């Protein structure tokens, strides 16, 4: 059904198509062609929704056989041909179920809504709720007057401490820049429209004959209009939070649509209170948010931490402490300033990193003196911690980084130089492959995938600082960290309005450069507990082969896998261990969202006993770890189909017609081609899938018209040539896969003592070099 929707009170109208897709694939192809015919003729804002009887990706189906890859590709082609974007959803994912039980139970997301770019712009509902809050605009840096305003404000003498002076001058800059911007620009959109009208009038005069004054004015207006367009592009780029395009790329329509999409996705329409009642009024939503976060960040009750902290080893040397607590230098502070994300969401002061980087010659000296004052006095002004002068935590993080690898257990791979996410992926894949195929033998095993509830937000400060002291950190260093952690203040916003502010009693601030390292110190205590429990034989791990290390756990920040011998006593000891750790650290295990997986050789009675002890459900076949599947089917192409789904979803989400070729070039290289990187580093991907990915990139590059793909003016192989050789420098996915596998092999030869290298050696080349490795009897896909 295709209709035109109009409202007398609104000047614009739009089109809507309501779909019921045929249950039979042959019939669906006819429906797809009908939708394409509508797209070719429809020029209005267009909404297309209904029951398509087709999933968009593997994740849109639970249970039963994997969906047909060819039908998914066909559906993606339809959406791309029509220039539509998925409007996504809120609430439960699946919209259809077969109402059967047990292994025959199936759920799918087949009811969807799509719209073209015009419809999304027309229905930007989020704009109604967002109040303008002027922070530091990126396009201001293109104006010399902005620098003059900053210089004038900063040159004024300040009273009080160095930190207070910097905070006061930042407030002054904010007010002066806000007033200057209103005088200088007013409304950018209105200025562009007015300038275009002026330009048209001048060009009409020129049509009457040679007029040197009109020609000079035309030249001036064209330059002004180009400058305004550039500023408009930067304005929407800043709000879109798109990181892969440089400021000033003239894709302002694309940035505008990205901003609309982000706002609609982040908009809170209603919330459920503690009594289970839905609330939709802004005041009610604000109260729910306030109560929730007050409870979340409430400090822990007093408790005995001595038993837990006593297990922590002293690892920090005097030499390390001397380097950690040395006097701060100008070079350190400037490096930290230029490591800030230029347009990363600013603090409550409204100044992103771009402000400090653009005007460091003006503000740098006083900012350095304020940071130096902190390191000398050991006191951080609370107002200073509300600004984007996260330079102090950044300096501390830069100092700690070289030593963190020697402090943290080899079972943790996050945020540590030299350790990579694929290290954990490889080991996890091998362990789950072993568990899945262990069908004989007296000993059974169980793998646990743990879900830690709001891990960063629940870290108890007293536990963190006592752990640091036991590790041997200098008292000055601990005090610096305390000042950074304990003086924070969180401000919460809903639909563009600030709803409350909270002084937390626990938790680590996400986005703070020091927080990841502090979290690792806390999580490492859990790793130490497991290792010491294994030595005491309180728990048993998994040894896949004689020469393999015993595996008890893998950590990547708060993503945790635990491997146990399936013995009831071991499982009880583990639950007691994690309960003690949770009480001390504040990290809370969400048993309902945690899951487990047994070896097939376990007896049913033992399985049920262990499930009761652990209180967890068994993993389903869609379980993932670090974004990759834990379980693989018989077909590698089907199992890796999610890569194609991710790339196609990105392409459709951005819209093919809203980017110029310069923008597409950066998007392909910075976003699309890195998507399968971790998979490509670990697995040899089928050639047919690589060809499918190459084709998707090629189609996106050349674009699509209303009648299908545009002409491909060059072969794919030519596009993969370097720009100096006449190509675009795109990566051929098959060659990219081989290159990344070769790189991983090189790491294997250079890091023979790493955990993942020892696991692979024990499995595939225990008495040989890695170059001589054989597949073995039951090899994985590594």
UniProtKB/TrEMBL annotation:
It holds the Pfam family RVT_1. CDD domains: RT_nLTR_like. This is Reverse transcriptase domain-containing protein. Residues 373-630 form the Reverse transcriptase domain.
């Amino acid at each position: 059904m295709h209709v035109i929707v109009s409202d007398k009170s609104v000047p614009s109208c739009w089109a809507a198509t309501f779909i019921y897709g045929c249950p039979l694939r042959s019939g669906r192809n006819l429906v797809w062609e009908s939708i394409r015919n509508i797209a070719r003729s429809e020029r209005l804002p267009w909404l297309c929704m209904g029951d398509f009887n087709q999933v968009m990706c593997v994740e849109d189906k639970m249970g039963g056989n994997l969906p047909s890859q060819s039908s998914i590709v066909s559906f993606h082609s339809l959406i791309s041909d029509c220039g539509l974007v998925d409007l996504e959803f809120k609430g439960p994912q699946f919209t259809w179920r077969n109402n059967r039980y047990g292994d025959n139970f199936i759920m799918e997301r087949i009811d969807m809504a799509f719209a073209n770019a015009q419809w999304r712009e027309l229905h930007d509902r989020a704009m109604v709720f967002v109040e303008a809050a002027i922070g530091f605009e990126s396009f201001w840096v293109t104006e010399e007057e902005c620098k003059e305003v900053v210089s004038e404000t900063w040159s004024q003498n300040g009273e009080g401490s160095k930190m207070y002076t910097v905070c006061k001058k930042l407030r002054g800059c904010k007010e002066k820049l806000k007033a200057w911007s209103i005088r200088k620009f007013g409304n950018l959109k209105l200025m562009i429209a007015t300038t275009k009208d002026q330009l048209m009038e001048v060009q009409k005069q020129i049509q009457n004959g040679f007029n040197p004054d009109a020609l000079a004015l035309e030249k001036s207006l064209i330059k002004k209009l180009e400058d305004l367009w550039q500023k408009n592009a930067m304005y929407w780029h800043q709000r879109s939070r798109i990181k892969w395009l440089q400021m000033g790329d003239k894709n302002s329509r694309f940035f505008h649509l990205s901003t609309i999409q982000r706002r609609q996705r982040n908009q809170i329409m209603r919330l459920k209170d503690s009594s289970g009642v839905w609330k939709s009024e802004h005041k009610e939503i604000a109260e729910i948010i306030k109560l929730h976060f007050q409870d979340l960040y409430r400090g822990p009750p007093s408790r005995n931490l001595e038993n837990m902290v006593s297990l922590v080893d002293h690892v920090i040397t005097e030499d390390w402490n001397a380097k950690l607590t040395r006097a701060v230098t100008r070079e350190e502070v400037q490096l930290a300033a230029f490591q800030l994300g230029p347009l990363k969401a600013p603090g409550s002061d409204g100044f992103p990193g771009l402000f400090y980087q653009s005007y460091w010659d003006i503000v740098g000296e006083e900012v350095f003196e304020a940071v130096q004052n902190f390191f000398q006095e050991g006191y951080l002004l609370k107002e200073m911690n509300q600004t984007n002068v996260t330079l102090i935590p950044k300096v501390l993080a830069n100092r700690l980084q070289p030593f963190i690898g020697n402090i943290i257990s080899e079972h943790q791979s996050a945020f540590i130089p030299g350790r990579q996410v694929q290290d954990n992926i490889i080991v996890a894949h091998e362990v789950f492959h072993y568990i899945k195929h262990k069908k004989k033998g007296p000993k059974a095993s169980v793998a646990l995938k743990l879900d830690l509830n709001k891990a960063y937000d629940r870290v108890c400060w007293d536990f963190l600082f006592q752990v640091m002291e036991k590790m041997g950190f200098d008292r000055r260093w601990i005090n610096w960290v305390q000042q950074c952690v304990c003086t924070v203040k969180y401000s919460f916003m809903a639909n563009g309005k600030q709803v409350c502010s909270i002084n937390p009693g626990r938790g680590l601030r996400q986005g703070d450069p020091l927080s990841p390292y502090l979290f690792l110190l806390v999580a490492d205590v859990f790793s130490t507990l497991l290792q010491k429990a294994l030595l005491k034989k309180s728990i048993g791990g998994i040894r896949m082969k004689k020469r393999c290390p015993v595996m008890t756990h893998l950590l990547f920040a708060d993503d945790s896998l635990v491997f146990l011998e399936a013995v009831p006593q071991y499982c009880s000891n583990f639950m007691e261990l994690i309960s003690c750790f949770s009480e001390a650290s504040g990290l809370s295990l969400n048993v309902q969202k945690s899951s487990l997986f047994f070896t097939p050789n376990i007896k049913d009675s033992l399985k049920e006993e262990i499930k009761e002890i652990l209180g967890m459900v068994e993993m389903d076949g869609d379980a993932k770890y670090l974004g990759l599947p834990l379980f693989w089917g018989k077909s590698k192409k089907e199992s890796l189909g999610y890569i194609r789904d991710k790339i196609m979803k990105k392409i459709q989400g951005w819209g093919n017609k809203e980017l110029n070729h310069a923008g597409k070039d950066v998007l392909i290289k910075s976003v699309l081609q890195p998507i399968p990187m971790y998979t490509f580093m670990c697995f040899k991907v089928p050639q047919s899938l690589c060809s499918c990915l190459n084709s998707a990139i090629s189609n996106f590059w050349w674009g699509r018209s209303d009648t299908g793909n545009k002409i491909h003016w060059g072969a794919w192989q030519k596009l993969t040539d370097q720009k100096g050789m006449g190509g675009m420098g795109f990566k051929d996915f098959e060659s990219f896969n081989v290159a990344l596998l070769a790189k991983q092999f090189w790491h294997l030869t250079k890091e023979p003592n790493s955990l993942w290298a020892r696991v692979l050696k024990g499995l595939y080349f225990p008495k040989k070099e890695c170059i001589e490795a054989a597949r073995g009897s039951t090899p994985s896909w590594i």
